[in-house]
Amino acid sequence: MAATGTTAGYEFLTESNLAEYIASSPELSRRVDPGALTTVEEIGDGNLNVVFRVRDARGGRLILKQALPYVRMSGEGWPMTPERARREAESLAAHHALVPELVVDPIRYDPERYILAMEDLSDHAVWRGALIAGERHEGVAAAMGRYVAAVAVGTSVLGLDRTTVSERIAATQNPELCVITEDLVFTEPAFDAGRNSVIPPNEPDAAALAGDPVYRGAMAEAKWRFMTRAEALIHGDLHTGSIMVRKAAGSDVADSVKAFDSEFAFYGPVGYDLGALYANYAIAAARSLALGEDEQAGWAIGLAGETAEAFAADFRTRSAAWPEHRLWDPAFAERRIDGFERDAWLFGAAKMARRIVGAAKTRDIETLPEALREGAARGVLNAARALSAAWDSPHAVGDFAELVLPILKAARTTGR
């Protein structure tokens, strides 16, 4: 659905007015020559925003992302505050300041037209697409573990004074997008509001999920924690589709990793970001198993252990610089790591289930032939139920893969 004209008192970006907009900003026109544009390409995913990639004749590049006052995929019938753009800009700036090598550079924010200008990562690939293609980018999962650890300490009372954190919590409230998460991720997979869907062979699986009292109880706990634990300024939507990756030719090692698209950011539970990553690793593994690529599946599910290990190591390192050492000693740090990992399993279960039965699915599963999709979807739902039963216990690195992979394998179907 194309966005044109004006609404809510501000003008939408279009191909015809984009050069004029760049020319109006000295900061942007220094990066891209508005009089010599060679590429103006709308690359938004169609869900929420308008996103343009622009290039000029001398090689200058820029991304411009504008928030609309409604959910783009549904039109004006689903209003949505464009203030989410400010929250994204501020969260990216806060995260980029902590780990600039792991977060896209938010160059400029226009509060009047809700436009965020960012560095262009055209030489990168969206990690989800690379995983779907069966590619490996070694080191990305560990990088994301370090990213979450940096945010867990650097935006919380563990690394900032109490007054600063209180002010930031107040300034970064994101109720509209949090309600989307609360409804679509936690409530609706069990209590359908009319937005759920699965292919017919998976209808019994969706019904079994919704009827599972253990799963429902876990989702009650997950929703409560999501709504009440203001631990850090989390990304809020950290999946393989919000991570850009790049590797040198002839190498499987990523030489650049960048998180982006943090408009769901708010002060919430650290384990939510970890769980979102784990869930997407499981979904990637389910796809590989469906295609008979067992080795790739084992590698994909093992990414959860890599993220967990890197997160724990970086969190421990950063704990040495905490301003409070009398009570927040190494034992306290270990308790936090254990709690975050438990939460990651809990939230991972939620994210896995919603991506199969909920309104926003993933290409990993949806692009499979239906005969293969049936087993992949069933495996993800069964694994989500198993995680819901096992989340609140101590977990070692590798336990996630050990639990989930056999369930995914047992559920897969053939194309015959």
**Helix segment tally:** 15
Number of strands: 12
Distance between the termini: 38 Å
Structural class: alpha+beta
CATH superfamily of the largest domain: Aminoglycoside phosphotransferase (APH), C-terminal lobe
Q: Into which percentage range does the β-strand content fall? A: 5-15%
pLDDT averaged over residues: 93
CATH architecture descriptor of the largest domain:
Alpha-Beta Complex
- Number of individual domains: 2
The shape, in one word, is globular
Low-confidence stretches: 1-7
Which oligomeric form is depicted? single chain
* Proportion in helices: 40-55%
The third-level CATH topology of the largest domain is Aminoglycoside 3'-phosphotransferase, Chain: A, domain 2
Task: Please specify the SSE layout and strand pairing.
Elements: E1 6-7, E2 10-11, H1 18-23, H2 26-31, E3 37-42, E4 49-56, E5 61-67, H3 84-98, E6 106-110, E7 115-118, E8 125-126, H4 127-132, H5 140-154, H6 162-171, H7 175-187, H8 203-210, H9 213-228, E9 232-234, E10 243-247, E11 254-259, E12 266-268, H10 270-290, H11 294-319, H12 330-357, H13 363-366, H14 370-390, H15 399-411
Antiparallel strand pairs: 1-2, 3-4, 4-5, 5-7, 6-7, 8-10, 9-12, 10-11
